[in-house]
Amino acid sequence: MKSSLIITTCNRPELLKNRSFPSAKNQNYPKDDFEVIVIDDTETRNGLAWARNEGVRKSKGKYIAFLDDDDALEPIFLKYTIPILENQLDKNVVIGKRLIVYPEITKEEPLPILGPNTLYTKLDDGYLIRKEVFDEIQYDEELLTNEDADFGIQYIQKYGWESIALLENVLLFKFGHKAIQEERTSWSYSSERVFIGMQRYIKKNLKYYLKLPKELSYLYRMMGRLYCLGGKRKEAIKYFLKAFKVKRSSSNFVYLLAAILGEKTFRKLWKREIVKLRFL
Question: What pLDDT is stored for residue 241 in this prediction?
């Protein structure tokens, strides 16, 4: 069997039924050459990293692709990606373009820029990966966020950016929320388990970030945002200050100032940033 398409889901049966599963099942590729596996984390609540690893453990295909339950693959996904891994043995991953679909706007996500200074590229859903990669590295099941970035760092350190093939074709549709819903979701997402997971992420990967100040600054700013959204303003200020010390940019200063001024001010800033990023 050539490929296993692994759909991870958690308590969203309608999205699974009407979006992700049909897009995986109806691939323009011989039906006996791929399988669709659904990993439902509704009861276990072990997290996305566990669900992806569990899907790999159950898979029979030579190549693996993950799909979130609220996203959809293009019908040509397997037709375009499998030949690359079949014919280019020095490649382990195929990445194509994505269309990001928000209620307000649809925009094309550019391909990642890969090179000697590449720290990672997120390896999540909509990419084709050789199954043998998972013999060496897996998703970290102790992380509740940034598990895809962590996997990407492991991958780049093990195989190098040269082993990733880029395709100009759109291969995945990713669906987002309204901006105001995104702001509320982000605000409620921070939890003690997320904080512990992110501390683990930093401990594992700080040595790689230290080589790239721009990425390190972003990491500290992201940590500050998580803590501020979780109501831990003192911890947030510490991380925003770290971000500003690494890179004295206006955006880092604004985040630091907003956190100092209080939760209400920071929430207004974060809501504005979500809207701005969406329409860039």
Answer: 97
Parallel/antiparallel/unpaired status of strands 72-73 and 3-9: unpaired
Map residue 56 onto helix, strand or coil. Answer: helix
Please list, residue by residue across 242-261, b when 16 or more beta carbons sit within 10 angstroms of its beta carbon and e when fewer do: bbbebbeeeebeebbebbee
pLDDT at 277: 60
* Total-model pTM: 0.90
Residues 6+ apart with CB under 8 A from 237: 224, 256, 259, 260
Spatial contact of 89 and 132, defined as CB atoms under 8 Å apart = no
Mean of pLDDT over the chain? 90
Burial of 184 (0-12, 13-18, 19+ CB in 10 A): middle
Residue at 26: amino acid letter? N
CB–CB of 80/171 below 8 Å? yes
Strands (DSSP E) found in the chain: 3-9, 34-40, 63-68, 72-73, 93-101, 106-109, 128-130, 164-175
| pLDDT bucket at 118, cuts 50 / 70 / 90 | confident
Q: What would the pLDDT profile of 15-24 be if each residue is shown by its tens digit?
A: 999 999 999 9
Residue 255 carries which side chain, given as an amino acid letter?
Y
What is the CB neighbour count within 10 angstroms for residue 187?
17
Secondary-structure percent of the chain, ordered helix, strand, coil, rounded to 5: 50, 20, 30
